[in-house]
Give the backbone structure.
Amino acid sequence: VVTTAHRALVHDCFEGEQYARGNGAVEVAILTGGLIGLAAGGLLIELALWMPFVLAAVAGCPCSPGLPSGAYRWSTPASPRDDAPTRFASMRRR
Amino acid sequence: VIRPGVRALLAAEILWVIGYAALPVFFILYARQVLELEPGPASLWLAAFALGAGVAMIAGGFVRNPRLHKPFLALGVSLMGAGFLAAAGSTSLVWVSLACASAAAGFGLVSTLGFSLFASLIPRGEAGGYTALYYSLRAVASAIAVPVAGWTIAVSGSYRSLFLLGGSATLAALVPLAFAPSPRTRVDPTRQLR
């Protein structure tokens, strides 16, 4: 669900010439997070078997795309592209 | 109703995912059996592959013109497929390193530009369904790739078939990719008014 919703945001929040940049940023973030998670999991499991699972559960909580900005509206507009407040660019301007 | 050209791009995606998805799973065994590398150095190769792919992903993000997404995606598929086949052709560590560098660059481009090209084909208001289709097929292809690679190794009796299968499947993706449409640059008339 998170993967699908996150990638759908790339389509809805960027114009065509920015898709590669947006998707590239998402891919690099996933790759970096995966590598960090692998290393952190390896270190934590040496301390206690349950610790990597707790890290996985806690780390995902603040990652919702809307939470960093209170400007994001969760209601879906009739035409997302015509509704500037749902765009990342508009969120930055606020 | 799925837009024209979407099926071709999805077929290409299935093939290139089958090409790469099994490699991390079997690479440690391949490195031990064929390259005579211990798991430690072999895992460092995997990390180097990830770093190379990350650099290529960042570079792929600079391809701003949507018309160039398809040619660069085809370049990425070619680099990845050729890299896998070249890796299967030698046990020289230098040669395999160069082949894996090519594959990593290709993988980075494919990861960034595959969905970028697909996103340009998504009709307005249907981002969720189309995105789910793209990533669910990627998950299905990943699930298929591992047992297919395992059976191929078992039948052939050689771990080299892992890279042969990966390279062949990846290069085969160029055929359906040729039928995928390249986006036309759209001009949004309301953009200057915002």
Observations:
- The two ends of chain B are 32 Å apart (CA to CA).
- The interface with chain A takes residues 47, 50, 53-54, 57-58, 60-66, 69, 108, 111-113, 115-116, 119-120, 122, 124-125, 127-128, 130-132, 134-136, 183, 185-186, 188, 190-191, 194 of chain B (CB under 8 Å).
- Residues 187-194 of chain B have pLDDT under 50 and may be disordered.
